[in-house]
Amino acid sequence: MKVVWYLPIVPRLKRLFANPKDAKNLRWHATERRCDEFLRHSADSIQWKNIDQEFPKFGEECRNILFGLATDGMNPFGNLSTNHNCWPVILFIYNLSPRLCMKRKYMMLSMLISSPK
Amino acid sequence: MIASTTPLSHGELIDFPTVSQTEHVVDSTLKERWEERCEERVEEDNMEDMIQDVGAEAFAQTHVYEMMSGDAETPLYVGSTKFTRLSVVLRLMNLKATNGWTDKSFIELLVLLNEMLPKGNTLPTQNYDAKKILFPMGMEYKRIHACPNDCILYKKEFKHLKKCPKCGSSRYK
Protein backbone atom coordinates (compact mmCIF):
# COMPACT_ATOMS: atom_id res chain seq x y z
CA MET A 1 0.00 0.00 0.00
CA LYS A 2 1.33 3.40 -0.91
CA VAL A 3 1.41 5.68 2.10
CA VAL A 4 2.37 9.31 2.53
CA TRP A 5 3.80 10.11 5.92
CA TYR A 6 3.06 13.77 6.28
CA LEU A 7 4.92 15.68 8.97
CA PRO A 8 3.01 18.95 9.40
CA ILE A 9 5.20 21.96 8.78
CA VAL A 10 3.06 24.65 10.38
CA PRO A 11 3.80 23.66 14.00
CA ARG A 12 7.47 23.48 13.12
CA LEU A 13 7.41 26.97 11.66
CA LYS A 14 5.63 28.15 14.78
CA ARG A 15 8.43 26.75 16.87
CA LEU A 16 11.02 28.43 14.72
CA PHE A 17 9.27 31.76 15.11
CA ALA A 18 8.92 31.18 18.86
CA ASN A 19 12.69 31.34 19.20
CA PRO A 20 13.88 34.97 18.94
CA LYS A 21 17.17 34.00 17.27
CA ASP A 22 15.49 31.86 14.64
CA ALA A 23 12.78 34.45 14.08
CA LYS A 24 15.47 37.00 13.36
CA ASN A 25 17.23 34.60 11.00
CA LEU A 26 13.98 34.03 9.13
CA ARG A 27 13.73 37.73 8.37
CA TRP A 28 17.30 37.81 7.11
CA HIS A 29 16.36 38.07 3.43
CA ALA A 30 14.56 41.36 4.09
CA THR A 31 16.58 42.91 6.88
CA GLU A 32 20.23 41.97 6.61
CA ARG A 33 20.75 40.96 3.00
CA ARG A 34 23.00 43.29 1.04
CA CYS A 35 21.23 44.59 -2.06
CA ASP A 36 23.56 45.36 -4.95
CA GLU A 37 24.07 44.08 -8.47
CA PHE A 38 25.56 40.74 -7.41
CA LEU A 39 23.72 37.47 -7.16
CA ARG A 40 24.52 35.78 -3.87
CA HIS A 41 21.23 34.37 -2.69
CA SER A 42 17.95 33.27 -4.21
CA ALA A 43 16.44 36.51 -2.94
CA ASP A 44 18.67 38.44 -5.37
CA SER A 45 17.15 36.61 -8.31
CA ILE A 46 14.58 37.88 -10.77
CA GLN A 47 12.29 34.95 -10.05
CA TRP A 48 12.10 35.89 -6.38
CA LYS A 49 11.22 39.47 -7.28
CA ASN A 50 8.66 38.22 -9.78
CA ILE A 51 6.97 36.21 -7.06
CA ASP A 52 6.89 39.26 -4.80
CA GLN A 53 5.40 41.31 -7.63
CA GLU A 54 2.88 38.70 -8.61
CA PHE A 55 1.69 38.29 -5.04
CA PRO A 56 2.29 41.70 -3.46
CA LYS A 57 0.48 40.81 -0.26
CA PHE A 58 2.75 37.81 0.20
CA GLY A 59 5.88 39.74 -0.71
CA GLU A 60 5.25 42.67 1.63
CA GLU A 61 5.38 40.52 4.73
CA CYS A 62 8.99 39.48 5.27
CA ARG A 63 7.92 36.71 7.64
CA ASN A 64 6.25 34.84 4.82
CA ILE A 65 8.42 31.91 3.96
CA LEU A 66 9.70 30.79 0.58
CA PHE A 67 10.55 27.12 0.39
CA GLY A 68 12.76 25.15 -1.90
CA LEU A 69 11.61 21.60 -2.47
CA ALA A 70 13.79 18.62 -3.24
CA THR A 71 12.93 14.97 -3.58
CA ASP A 72 14.61 11.80 -4.74
CA GLY A 73 14.13 8.09 -4.42
CA MET A 74 16.39 6.49 -1.88
CA ASN A 75 17.03 3.20 -0.21
CA PRO A 76 17.24 3.64 3.53
CA PHE A 77 18.77 0.24 4.28
CA GLY A 78 21.56 0.07 1.74
CA ASN A 79 21.00 -2.40 -1.06
CA LEU A 80 19.44 -5.06 1.12
CA SER A 81 15.81 -4.28 0.51
CA THR A 82 14.98 -3.34 -3.01
CA ASN A 83 11.33 -4.30 -2.89
CA HIS A 84 10.26 -0.93 -1.53
CA ASN A 85 10.21 2.59 -2.84
CA CYS A 86 10.97 5.44 -0.49
CA TRP A 87 10.81 9.08 -1.44
CA PRO A 88 11.59 11.77 1.09
CA VAL A 89 10.42 15.29 0.30
CA ILE A 90 12.69 17.87 1.86
CA LEU A 91 12.00 21.59 2.21
CA PHE A 92 14.64 24.28 2.44
CA ILE A 93 13.84 27.68 3.88
CA TYR A 94 15.19 30.27 1.49
CA ASN A 95 14.47 33.14 3.88
CA LEU A 96 17.57 32.18 5.80
CA SER A 97 21.03 33.42 5.04
CA PRO A 98 23.04 31.21 2.68
CA ARG A 99 25.13 30.14 5.65
CA LEU A 100 22.11 28.59 7.34
CA CYS A 101 19.65 27.62 4.67
CA MET A 102 21.37 24.36 3.73
CA LYS A 103 22.16 23.41 7.33
CA ARG A 104 20.75 20.15 8.53
CA LYS A 105 19.03 21.88 11.41
CA TYR A 106 16.93 24.03 9.12
CA MET A 107 16.02 21.43 6.53
CA MET A 108 12.58 20.01 6.93
CA LEU A 109 11.49 16.55 6.04
CA SER A 110 7.90 17.31 5.14
CA MET A 111 6.82 14.06 3.58
CA LEU A 112 7.97 10.52 3.27
CA ILE A 113 6.31 8.47 0.56
CA SER A 114 6.73 4.75 0.95
CA SER A 115 5.30 1.98 -1.15
CA PRO A 116 6.03 -1.58 -2.17
CA LYS A 117 7.59 -1.92 -5.57
CA MET B 1 21.53 18.99 -4.08
CA ILE B 2 20.43 16.54 -1.44
CA ALA B 3 23.33 14.21 -1.89
CA SER B 4 25.86 16.87 -0.99
CA THR B 5 24.06 18.06 2.09
CA THR B 6 22.55 15.03 3.74
CA PRO B 7 24.40 12.01 5.03
CA LEU B 8 21.67 9.63 3.92
CA SER B 9 23.14 6.73 2.03
CA HIS B 10 22.09 7.69 -1.42
CA GLY B 11 21.36 4.26 -2.77
CA GLU B 12 19.25 4.32 -5.88
CA LEU B 13 17.07 1.36 -6.56
CA ILE B 14 19.16 0.45 -9.58
CA ASP B 15 22.67 -0.93 -9.26
CA PHE B 16 25.58 0.97 -10.77
CA PRO B 17 28.42 -1.54 -10.95
CA THR B 18 30.80 0.96 -12.59
CA VAL B 19 31.09 3.24 -9.59
CA SER B 20 32.19 0.53 -7.18
CA GLN B 21 35.86 1.39 -7.65
CA THR B 22 35.50 4.90 -6.27
CA GLU B 23 32.84 4.02 -3.77
CA HIS B 24 35.05 3.52 -0.73
CA VAL B 25 36.81 6.85 -1.35
CA VAL B 26 33.50 8.67 -1.41
CA ASP B 27 32.36 6.70 1.60
CA SER B 28 35.31 7.67 3.77
CA THR B 29 35.02 11.39 3.00
CA LEU B 30 31.29 11.22 3.56
CA LYS B 31 31.89 9.46 6.84
CA GLU B 32 34.35 12.12 7.96
CA ARG B 33 31.92 14.84 7.09
CA TRP B 34 29.16 13.02 8.92
CA GLU B 35 31.31 12.70 12.02
CA GLU B 36 32.20 16.37 11.87
CA ARG B 37 28.56 17.19 11.67
CA CYS B 38 27.81 14.96 14.65
CA GLU B 39 30.35 16.84 16.76
CA GLU B 40 28.91 20.12 15.59
CA ARG B 41 25.49 18.95 16.56
CA VAL B 42 26.46 17.86 20.03
CA GLU B 43 27.65 21.40 20.69
CA GLU B 44 24.41 22.74 19.36
CA ASP B 45 22.36 20.46 21.59
CA ASN B 46 21.72 23.00 24.27
CA MET B 47 19.20 21.81 26.76
CA GLU B 48 17.92 25.22 27.74
CA ASP B 49 17.49 26.27 24.14
CA MET B 50 15.55 23.14 23.50
CA ILE B 51 13.21 23.63 26.42
CA GLN B 52 12.77 27.22 25.38
CA ASP B 53 11.82 26.17 21.87
CA VAL B 54 9.31 23.67 23.11
CA GLY B 55 8.10 25.81 25.97
CA ALA B 56 6.99 28.76 23.91
CA GLU B 57 4.87 26.56 21.71
CA ALA B 58 3.42 24.62 24.60
CA PHE B 59 2.43 27.58 26.75
CA ALA B 60 -1.13 26.95 25.70
CA GLN B 61 -0.93 23.52 27.29
CA THR B 62 0.89 24.44 30.46
CA HIS B 63 0.91 20.96 31.89
CA VAL B 64 3.22 19.82 29.10
CA TYR B 65 5.69 22.54 29.92
CA GLU B 66 5.51 21.90 33.63
CA MET B 67 5.98 18.19 33.14
CA MET B 68 8.97 18.81 30.97
CA SER B 69 10.73 21.38 33.09
CA GLY B 70 9.97 19.09 36.01
CA ASP B 71 11.89 16.30 34.29
CA ALA B 72 14.62 18.77 33.40
CA GLU B 73 15.15 19.59 37.08
CA THR B 74 14.70 16.14 38.60
CA PRO B 75 18.17 14.71 39.17
CA LEU B 76 18.72 11.17 37.92
CA TYR B 77 19.37 10.05 41.49
CA VAL B 78 19.78 11.90 44.76
CA GLY B 79 23.04 13.83 44.61
CA SER B 80 23.57 13.61 40.86
CA THR B 81 24.71 16.96 39.54
CA LYS B 82 25.61 15.95 36.02
CA PHE B 83 22.45 14.30 34.79
CA THR B 84 18.79 15.08 35.05
CA ARG B 85 15.96 12.74 34.17
CA LEU B 86 15.34 14.57 30.90
CA SER B 87 18.96 14.81 29.80
CA VAL B 88 19.60 11.11 30.37
CA VAL B 89 16.51 10.02 28.47
CA LEU B 90 17.43 12.38 25.66
CA ARG B 91 20.98 11.06 25.41
CA LEU B 92 19.85 7.46 25.50
CA MET B 93 17.14 8.02 22.91
CA ASN B 94 19.68 9.72 20.68
CA LEU B 95 21.95 6.68 20.94
CA LYS B 96 19.03 4.37 20.26
CA ALA B 97 18.07 6.31 17.16
CA THR B 98 21.56 6.76 15.69
CA ASN B 99 22.54 3.12 16.19
CA GLY B 100 19.23 1.57 15.33
CA TRP B 101 18.74 -0.28 18.61
CA THR B 102 15.60 -2.32 18.81
CA ASP B 103 12.91 -1.43 21.34
CA LYS B 104 13.56 -4.72 23.08
CA SER B 105 17.29 -4.15 23.53
CA PHE B 106 16.61 -0.62 24.68
CA ILE B 107 14.22 -1.77 27.39
CA GLU B 108 16.72 -4.37 28.56
CA LEU B 109 19.40 -1.71 28.78
CA LEU B 110 17.09 0.58 30.73
CA VAL B 111 16.36 -2.21 33.21
CA LEU B 112 20.07 -2.93 33.61
CA LEU B 113 20.95 0.72 34.10
CA ASN B 114 18.18 0.96 36.63
CA GLU B 115 19.79 -1.84 38.62
CA MET B 116 23.24 -0.25 38.36
CA LEU B 117 22.12 3.16 39.56
CA PRO B 118 21.54 3.89 43.26
CA LYS B 119 18.13 3.04 44.63
CA GLY B 120 15.40 5.60 44.14
CA ASN B 121 16.71 6.76 40.77
CA THR B 122 14.26 8.27 38.35
CA LEU B 123 15.31 6.47 35.18
CA PRO B 124 12.30 5.06 33.34
CA THR B 125 12.38 1.31 32.69
CA GLN B 126 9.98 1.25 29.80
CA ASN B 127 10.47 2.50 26.30
CA TYR B 128 6.96 3.90 26.53
CA ASP B 129 7.81 5.98 29.59
CA ALA B 130 10.93 7.28 27.90
CA LYS B 131 8.89 8.28 24.89
CA LYS B 132 6.34 9.98 27.13
CA ILE B 133 9.04 12.19 28.61
CA LEU B 134 10.18 13.22 25.15
CA PHE B 135 6.68 13.50 23.76
CA PRO B 136 6.49 17.31 23.93
CA MET B 137 9.74 17.49 21.92
CA GLY B 138 8.63 15.20 19.17
CA MET B 139 6.54 16.27 16.28
CA GLU B 140 3.37 14.58 15.27
CA TYR B 141 2.88 13.05 11.86
CA LYS B 142 -0.01 11.95 9.69
CA ARG B 143 -0.33 8.80 7.64
CA ILE B 144 -2.19 9.35 4.40
CA HIS B 145 -2.96 6.47 2.06
CA ALA B 146 -2.23 7.10 -1.60
CA CYS B 147 -3.36 5.57 -4.86
CA PRO B 148 -0.65 3.20 -6.16
CA ASN B 149 -0.78 5.03 -9.51
CA ASP B 150 -0.33 8.43 -7.85
CA CYS B 151 -3.83 9.64 -8.84
CA ILE B 152 -5.07 10.81 -5.46
CA LEU B 153 -4.47 10.92 -1.74
CA TYR B 154 -7.17 9.41 0.45
CA LYS B 155 -7.91 12.58 2.36
CA LYS B 156 -10.66 15.19 2.48
CA GLU B 157 -13.43 14.14 0.07
CA PHE B 158 -11.72 10.81 -0.73
CA LYS B 159 -11.18 9.95 2.91
CA HIS B 160 -13.58 6.99 3.11
CA LEU B 161 -13.29 5.62 -0.42
CA LYS B 162 -12.18 2.02 -0.91
CA LYS B 163 -10.83 2.42 -4.44
CA CYS B 164 -9.38 5.18 -6.57
CA PRO B 165 -12.08 7.26 -8.35
CA LYS B 166 -9.77 7.88 -11.32
CA CYS B 167 -8.12 4.57 -12.12
CA GLY B 168 -10.27 2.23 -10.05
CA SER B 169 -7.42 0.41 -8.36
CA SER B 170 -8.05 -0.82 -4.86
CA ARG B 171 -6.99 1.18 -1.83
CA TYR B 172 -6.09 -1.98 0.07
CA LYS B 173 -4.58 -4.62 -2.09
List the main descriptive attributes of the protein structure presented here.
heterodimer; A: 117 residues; four-stranded antiparallel β-sheet; 4 strands; 32% helix; 25% strand; B: 173 residues; mainly alpha; 7 helices
Structure description:
The complex is a heterodimer of chains A (117) and B (173). Chain A has 117 residues and is of the alpha+beta class. Chain A contains six helices and four strands; from the N terminus they run E-H-H-H-H-H-E-E-H-E. Chain A has a four-stranded antiparallel beta sheet, with no helix packed on it. Chain A is elongated. Chain B has 173 residues and is an all-alpha fold. Among the domains of chain B are: 47-134, no CATH class; 142-173, no CATH class. Chain B has helices at 2-5, 20-44, 47-58, 62-73, 85-99, 103-116, 127-134; one strand spanning 142-146. Chain B starts with a helix and ends in a 27-residue tail after the last strand. Classes of the chains: A alpha+beta (117), B mainly alpha (173). At the A-B interface, strand 1, helix 1 and strand 3 of A face helix 1, helix 2, helix 3 and strand 1 of B. Strand 1 (2-6) of chain A pairs antiparallel with strand 1 of chain B, so a sheet runs across the interface.
